[in-house]
C-alpha cells in the first residue's frame, strides 16, 4: 500500500505545482520558526528550513512521505523575503533593477516511518531589466505579488521584469523545484509516470 504523501506547506503556489504531478497528497502547515541563523548562507537556510518543515510534521503523519520546500532570494548579498506590502515590494524591485538575483530553493523528503530523509538545493537566477519606477509601480498595481519572495510572480506578468533566466527548473522560482522533487520521490519508489 502506498504511503500517504504530505506537502509541508500552506502555500497555494506549491500546492498548484505539486498537483501537476497528478499524485494524491494532502497539505499541512509545519509552523516552524523561519528565522535565519547568524552567519547562515542563503543556500544553507533554504536547505535547513526545507528539512525542518518535514520534521515538524513527522509525529503528526507517521509512515508518510513528507515534502518540504523553502526558498531564499539574494541580490548582491542582500536576502529578499516576502515584501508583505506595496512599499517594500517597490523597494525590493528597485534594488533588483538591472541586477542578477539568485533564488536558492531547498527541497526535502522525509519518510516519517523509517526516518530516511533526502534534501537537495536548486539554484535559479534571474537577470532583471533596467526598470523605471513607473514600470515597477505599474507591475505591482497589476499583480500585487506581496506574498512572493522577490516581489514578482514569474508565472504571470512578472516575466516581463527579466532579461533572461538561468537554471534547470523555473518552477523553483514559484517555490517547488519539480524536477528535483521527482528525483527525490523516485528514491522512495514513487514515480509520477508509473501506470495508475
Task: Write up what this structure looks like.
By secondary structure, the chain is an alpha/beta fold. The protein contains 6 helices and 7 strands; from the N terminus they run βαβαββαββαβαα. Strands 1, 2, 3, 4, 5, 6 and 7 form a 7-stranded mixed β-sheet that branches. Helix 3 crosses helix 4. It starts with a strand and ends in a 9-residue tail after the last helix. 37% of the residues are buried. The mean pLDDT is 94.
Biggest sheet, open or closed, and with what strands and sense?
Answer: 7 strands, mixed
Radius of gyration: 17 Å
**Spatial gap, N to C terminus:** 13 Å
The coarse silhouette is elongated
Q: Strand-and-helix sequence, N→C?
A: EHEHEEHEEHEHH
Derived structural class: alpha/beta
**Percent strand:** 15-25%
Name the average pLDDT: 94
Essential attributes:
30% helix, alpha/beta, 196 residues, single chain, 6 helices, 7 strands
Write the layout of secondary structure elements.
Layout: E1 5-7, H1 12-19, E2 26-27, H2 42-56, E3 65-75, E4 78-80, H3 86-96, E5 100-111, E6 117-128, H4 133-143, E7 162-166, H5 171-174, H6 178-187
Parallel strand pairs: 1-2, 1-3
Antiparallel strand pairs: 3-4, 3-5, 5-6, 6-7
Compose a concise summary of this entry.
This protein has 196 residues and is α/β, with parallel strands linked by helices. The protein is built from 6 helices and 7 strands; from the N terminus they run E-H-E-H-E-E-H-E-E-H-E-H-H.
